[in-house]
Amino acid sequence: MVKNNKDLLYKAALLASITQTIVLACLANIMLNLISQN
Questions:
Q1: What are the CA-CA distances from residue 8 to residues 13, 21, 31, 36 (Å)?
Q2: Which helix (H) or strand (E) holds 28?
C-alpha cells in the first residue's frame, strides 16, 4: 500500500513536471512570436 502510494506520488510529480515544462515552452514561444511581430 505504501509502495503503491509512493509510486503514485512519483508519477504525479513527473506528470506535473512535464506539464510545467510544456506550458513554459508554449509561453516562451508565444512571447517570441509577439516580439517578432512588432
A1: 9, 20, 34, 42
A2: helix 2-37
What local confidence, expressed as pLDDT, does residue 1 receive?
56
Cα–Cα distance list, 25 to 5, 19, 31, 33 (Å):
30, 10, 10, 12
For residue 6, give the C-alpha cell.
Answer: 509512493
**What tens digit of pLDDT does each residue of 1-38 get?**
567 889 999 999 999 999 999 999 999 999 999 999 97
Q: What is the C-alpha to C-alpha distance for residues 18 and 38, in angstroms, rounded to an integer?
A: 31
Dist CA 28 CA 16 (whole Å): 18
